[in-house]
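Lines hold sequence, tokenised fold; shown next:
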Amino acid sequence: MTILVRTHRVLAAIFQHCKYSTKTKAISSVHLANKEFPSDEYTNVTPKIISYLGKNLHLQKGNPLAIVRKRIVNYFYSSFTHRGNPIFSIYDNLSPIVTTKQNFDDLLIPNDHPSRAKSDCYYVNKDILLRAHMTAHQSELLRSGLDNFLMIGDVYRRDEIDSTHFPVFHQVDAVRSQRKEELFKDHPDLEIFEPAFDISNPHTFVNTITDPSKQSCHTLEAAKLMETQLKSHLIGLVYALFGKDIKHRWVDAYFPFTHPSWELEIYYDGDWMEVLGCGIVRNEILANAGPNNSIAYAFGLGLERLAMALYKIPDIRLMWSKDSGFLSQFQDKNIDEKITYKPVSSYPQCTNDISFWLPTTLTVDTFISNDFYDLVREIGGDIIEQVKLRDKFVHPKSKKHSLCYSIVYRHLERTLTQDEVNKVHKHIETAVTDMFNVTIR
């Protein structure tokens, strides 16, 4: 199939996934997972993004993401047992369609937090979105009575386009909670909570995070012991993946749903690389979900980042490849085997620039690049390797605003001709003109 024909089909798919009013041309509903969702001014999920739902790369045998997932699960199964049985339960097939309450409110994410912005998330409507992190399921699992669990799946975020960023990636999130008798089994005289905190009525206590070492409801002993366990367990995970010679360091961080919070970095390929974020779960989350006598830690990490580092995979798009030359390097392997990806072939890039004048309603600072990236990805699909903002320009006389982007095209399995790239690029120009009311320079 030529790219030109494919482009026409991609454009046609917009009308297959979204129903339109013939009078206003506004999207009236979005079809996801055999359900129809009403749309509104928040709707920005695209057919290309919808097409990734249900792929579950983390469960596909022989995919590098599935190998890393299995190694992480094995570490937790072997490290945490009770009477010979693993204490962690695994949830790796949860629906990625969640509510804003699950994704934000249950996690104490403020209404004005930038992670809620339409420029960052794929919204089905103002109340429904494609989860931006696996932590979106944390409260529902706590509410069901679970103490220790891993949540693994695909997450969706609007982002730039390059070799390390993709709008769909895969995360492992985990929660480990403990009651007093487990945390202080050797010191029954110690307490998890300060005397002012009433376990039977936790909502009467105003929990604060002004102290960088702990939440105000927790005793220092409980906070420090949980921190020690958390860091020890996660360093053990990094050792299990990268070997005990890997250099690592902890960096203080901020997340709305944990306090204190940290990021773990490893020294990789001549630089420090963040591999996960973690912290002590805010007690309000536990109390709102049911548990009012526990303390918990949580962490989250991206499978793509780990797989690319472990196996020297240079382009995140390769995770989605169906090419046998790629997949065969990971199939039927011992999961702990040292694998170094060998390029199947190196096809040349084609780079085209696109410059346009913005309408008077927009400026170079108010135009949302993620909107443009989504449109480029929708038209060009997986042959889009990178999109970079090259230049912002304001005409000194007319005061008109202009932007210039470079679009890098590369097919992972064959050589693209400049002619077919030009045809796709022309479709992008037409679509940008229609969608944003710009004028191509």
Notes: The first helix runs from residue 3 to 17.
